[in-house]
Amino acid sequence: MATQPQSSSSPAKSALAQLSGEIHACHRCPRLVEWREASATAPPRRFRGEGYWARPVSGFGDPDARLAIVGLAPAAHGANRTGRMFTGDRSGDWLYAALHRAGYANQAESVDDDDGLSLCDAYVTAVVRCAPPANRPTPAERDRCLPYLVRELELLEQVRVVVALGAFAWDGALRALRGLGAEVPRPRPRFGHGAEVVIGDLTLLGCYHPSQQNTFTGRLTVQMLDRIFSRASQVDR
């Protein structure tokens, strides 16, 4: 695995940029549109005066990545504020620090979309692209958004490992892979931290979501998260 950020001139780069434009203009889910915009107009005190992205959030990273990381959705005052997945919140603090330790990121912090962060051999995305109330998208909202994940994974032709952060992302990743024509095993693989299943030429790894609910309680530790990305780097060789 490369240890320095790369720039890519691959066909995937322009195709992903075009897809990002489509995602940013999406208004398919009225409830999510209302919530993401309401969150921007009534921010907590620590973010007052900051401009909010308040639009759907596209994926971020290396177009030639062999590792894709799939989350649930943007946080109302994280990526919904910054415009970049897992940026500007506690979950992102954990995720990007782990990616830096594993050699996938050039720095351990992700504060805003212009902070110099670059990913090498990794791409970060989510099942749902707008911040949902209580972090709970409805099944209909998931299904309307899922084609974006399908198309991202289709364009990321070098991906060999998908890390799903949480049960919702695990379910979404399985649905997306099925949408790409992959044969998902039956019975359907169950989510768990460290769960691993081979689907076609991809390996899906389960990881507890680095939410404060998990990290503050010790359900997810730094060592547990590092082991997931260590395993991912072994698989994608």
Overview of the structural elements:
The protein is of the alpha/beta class and 237 residues long. It has one domain (11-235): Uracil-DNA Glycosylase, subunit E. It is 38% helix and 11% strand. It has helices spanning 11-24, 30-41, 79-82, 90-101, 139-155, 167-179, 212-215, 222-235; strands at residues 60-61, 67-71, 122-126, 161-165, 196-199, 202-207. A hairpin with a 2-residue loop joins β5 (196-199) and β6 (202-207). α1 runs antiparallel to α5 (139-155), α4 packs across α8 (222-235) and α5 (139-155) packs across α6 (167-179).
Write the SSE topology.
Blueprint: H1 11-24, H2 30-41, E1 60-61, E2 67-71, H3 79-82, H4 90-101, E3 122-126, H5 139-155, E4 161-165, H6 167-179, E5 196-199, E6 202-207, H7 212-215, H8 222-235
Parallel strand pairs: 2-3, 2-4, 4-6
Antiparallel strand pairs: 1-3, 5-6
Helix pairs in contact: 1-5, 4-8, 5-6
Brief descriptors of the model:
237 residues; Uracil-DNA Glycosylase, subunit E; 6 strands; globular
